[in-house]
Specification:
Elements lengths: L5 H33 L3 H31 L6 H25 L3 H24 L1
Length: 131
């Protein structure tokens, strides 16, 4: 068996948190039609329950992401550094749009900010695979 290191632990926690943040958004979005059929307040109740877990995961992502950057010490002018900067832009965008989605009052706001958060979260995963 390969040794378990701090790097292994750090990356494991980062990936688990990303799974919750991104996977949870995709799963909840897929469930919205069924939740609406169960009752008009059911989607909001489910979203509030998810948010209690999702925001913790987002915080863990920020913490472990900064930890990753400190360990890697990237050269920001390199292709790797520029890709990482773009990923960080999407991290901020995903968090801001998720917050706006959570506070939206109209169906249009929910749809636009929910889609923006989900798409930006998928962009983060794509860029993470590149890195």
């Amino acid at each position: 068996m390969l040794p378990i290191t701090w790097s292994t632990f750090r990356l494991f926690v980062h990936v688990v948190a990303a799974t919750v943040w991104v996977g949870g958004q995709l799963t909840l979005a897929a469930l919205v039609p069924a939740l609406r059929a169960a009752g008009p307040e059911v989607p909001r109740t489910a979203a509030q329950a998810f948010n209690r877990v999702a925001w913790v995961a987002y915080g863990v992502l920020i913490f472990t992401g900064l930890w990753n950057i400190m360990v890697i010490e990237p050269t920001w002018e390199s292709a790797y550094g520029r890709t990482l900067m773009l990923k960080l832009v999407f991290v901020v965008l995903s968090g801001v749009t998720a917050l706006l989605h959570a506070r939206a009052k109209s169906r249009l706001g929910l749809a636009v900010f929910g889609a923006a958060s989900g798409i930006s979260a998928l962009a983060i995963i794509f860029l993470a695979v590149q890195l």
